[in-house]
Amino acid sequence: MIWKFFKKEEGVKQKENPADPEPQPAEAASGFFNRLKAGLSKTRRSLSGGLDQLFAVKGAMDGDAIESLEELLITSDIGVETSMKLVDRVSKNAGRISSPDQLKAMLKEELMTFLKMEKPAATMPAKPHVVMVVGVNGVGKTTTIGKLAAKIKSEQKSVLIGAADTFRAAAVEQLSIWAERSGADIVKHKGEADPAAVAFDAVDAAIARNRDVVLIDTAGRLHTR
Questions:
Q1: Could you report the per-residue pLDDT of 8-44, keeping only the tens digit for each?
Q2: CA atoms of 212 and 134, how far apart (whole Å)
Q3: Can you say whether residue 170 is alpha, beta or left, with left for phi > 0 and alpha for psi between -120 and 50 degrees?
Q4: Which domains does the chain have, with CATH numbers?
Q5: pLDDT, the chain, mean
Q6: Which residues touch 137 (CB under 8 Å, ≥6 apart)?
Q7: SS3 at position 161
Q8: DSSP string of 28-46?
């Protein structure tokens, strides 16, 4: 009886306490470009602050400072090859750099030359030139094939797409839309066909139709499977 009484009292107290207010809805998530800008601004602040700190500690662009600069550039996602080119430029002009602003100006100038470089068009020794696109699920293989097809067509070359992703639902339909938009031919089979058979038929059709490039889509797979 006593136990029931306390249980009853507890129930009464719970009823008397007002319910907690409903949490306010979260603000709408920022758009893609806002998130991208925020991510890049974090990297920019980290790199700029690192360059300032480098001069505050080293005082001049000596060997240790250049080594620290190399580490800073690589850890700031500049890329190893690009970082080495930037470090080489700084090393050759180390005597002319006496402040963080001068270092930043030199790095900016060198980066601008990289962006303005015109790379020669890729050569295609064989015809048809076959490209098989592979990768894990959801990385954008099918979309990339559509963009590649449009790019190649803009260079006055003919394209044929092989829809060898016979595993994912609607993959063939999606690729058919990309082929139509880019003006490329497409080879596809019905149902859960053998992907190897689709790839073989795509190359065979490209040879028969004298196409320049074959782009073969594949099902997403982890490297361990």
A1: 444 444 444 444 444 443 443 356 667 767 767 777 7
A2: 20
A3: left
A4: 38-115 (1.20.120.140), 129-217 (3.40.50.300)
A5: 80
A6: 168, 220, 221, 222
A7: strand
A8: PPPPHHHHHHHHHHHHHHH
